Amino acid sequence: MSSTDGFRADWAQKDFYAVLGVKKDSSVDEIKKAYRKLARENHPDSNPGDSAKHEKFKSVAEAYDVVGDADKRRSYDEMRSLYGSGGFRGGYPGAGGPSGGASFNLDDLLREQGGAGGGIGDMFGDLFGRSRAQSRPRPQKGADVETTATIGFVDALDGVTISLRLSSDAPCATCQGSGGKPGTRPHACPECDGAGYVVAGVGGAFSMNETCPVCRGRQVVYDAPCPTCFGSGRGSSSRTIQARIPAGVADGQRIRLRGKGAPGESGGAAGDLYVTVKVSAHRLFGRKDEHLTLDVPVSFDELALGAEVRVPTLGGPAVTLKIPAGTPNGRTFRVRGKGATKADGSRGDLLATVEVQVPAVLDPTAREALEAFRAATSAKPLRSNLFEAVES
């Protein structure tokens, strides 16, 4: 029996639930709580020189690595069920039964299940970190892609569909992402034994899985590499897609379009596309969240005496602002329902701010009128209280 077979038989006969002191039907939280308690009690750092506790710590870590993972736990339970019901005759794979039954080797069974369809080999493949040479590479999601799009001010308010030309990483067109020369057959990667990953120790009883550096996670290798991608399995793709920019998008906003990124490998899903939207400025209007802003030029007399001023709206008829007499410069008037589209389909408001325009040149009549106004209001200087406050 090979060392790998012994390793499997050892796991088949271990009761990881008993090691953790929990029942088979214990919840995930109960298993985690038991593991943490035992790990603290038996950790090597807390028990220097105590070899018994060190071994206990390793057993606890091994047990939790299996029953603490949903997929591994399911496979382990199925394996234990087969083992306990006589599915593995002889008490362990590769040995004769107590009643003289024929010897049985689990590795032979795994090889027999290597054809089309799953079988017991698929059920135990992930649990034991070993795959068959006929295993198909794992599906891998495509890479996410980022791009920038510039749209008009009005399009940002109403929403728009735009065309985007994208260049992204993609499976090689010659080998379809396999990395092998067309016509050649793959075989299991010798470095990871077809698992797609290798186990790297991180100190103590702990270890972690890393992508295999030889097959790059594809599980298989080819003797002859693809002449186009030189075995990498990767190429480039250029395509044009239609992307819908939602109504009300703001300048600088990042939009996620699911499944519009780079194609996946081995049947994996495509990545996502992230579009950073740049919105062009408008000649008259500005934007403040769901509201539009507008600066309205007015004269001094319109604010002092009151007036009705016509102002434009975006995509609709003009509206009239009624400015009361004595309105201060910089006051903002709200015109409801004339702003940007909100997420619920309603619209924000138009915020119109009045700004006094000072004429650069005055004709004689206007100058004479202003001088008369100055004389009429000179008895009440505007800044007298300001200077008194400073002097006191």
Annotation keywords:
392 residues; alpha+beta; Helix Hairpins; Chaperone, DNAj Protein, Chain A; HSP40/DNAj peptide-binding domain; 3 domains; 3-stranded mixed beta sheet; 11 helices; disordered N terminus; zinc-finger; zinc ion binding
Which structural class do the helices and strands define?
alpha+beta
Output the number of helix runs: 11
Low-pLDDT sequence parts: 1-9, 86-135
Q: Can you summarize the main beta sheet?
A: 4 strands, mixed
Q: Tell me the CATH architecture of the largest domain.
A: Ribbon
- Report the β-strand fraction as a percent range: 15-25%
Shape: elongated
Strand and helix order? HHHHHHHEHEEEEEEEEEEHEEEEHH
Tell me how many strands there are.
Answer: 15
- Based on CA atoms alone, the radius of gyration comes out at 38 Å
How many angstroms separate the termini?
103 Å
Instruction: Report the top-level CATH class of the largest domain.
Output: Mainly Beta
The name CATH uses for the topology of the largest domain is: Chaperone, DNAj Protein, Chain A
